[in-house]
Amino acid sequence: MGKRVALVLAGCGVFDGSEIHEASAALVHLSRGGAEVKIFAPNIEQRDVVNHLKGSPTEEKRNVLVESARLARGNIQDLAELKASEFDAVIFPGGFGVAKNLCSWAVDGKNCTVNEQVNSTLQAFHSAKKPIGLCCISPVLAAKVFPGCEVTVGQDKNVDGRFPDAETASAIAELGCKHICKNVNESHVDKANKIVTTCAFMCKAPLHEIFDGIGTMVQEVLKLA
């Protein structure tokens, strides 16, 4: 029987929600791995709405659950309904929505607060010793909630201009966590905490390399489940 995995989204679109390619890659790899997936998102207002053509904020108001439903093809539930006891693992794709809607990292950095439902979800899976998969910017959720854990957001230096957000690694270290440098097609497994992370679009890389890296994260999550 396939593993039961919860996928938590943060909206729809890289600049104000979940990164669409990351969410899709996770779903493809989960499907290939025979997992039974249910999708969730918090029923809250987005921090902002960005015109993705212009790259600038608009005056619109949008709901994270309603926008995430676009990615889920309408088959989605309120994060408040997620019960860790019903799943073997949880995965969080990245995108600025994670840093804006699931926590306040985009504004407050390492001093951010984590959405209460997101925090309780992470704590529930961790307490039950069930694996947590995170990619792109979403490893900062684990760094904030689980001091001392190990995560990767790629490299801690802007190697060849491919890691423009390398300072995130330093902020993670300042939270008392260990940042592990990894390439885009790799993931890191914190065996003690059952946390699996990969950098995805934190690296400027071809889409297939990001897809493959997310694949390694999903495979490791399923192994631990």
Automatic annotation (TrEMBL):
<dbReference type="InterPro" id="IPR029062">
    <property type="entry name" value="Class_I_gatase-like"/>
</dbReference>
<protein>
    <submittedName>
        <fullName>GAL3A protein</fullName>
    </submittedName>
</protein>
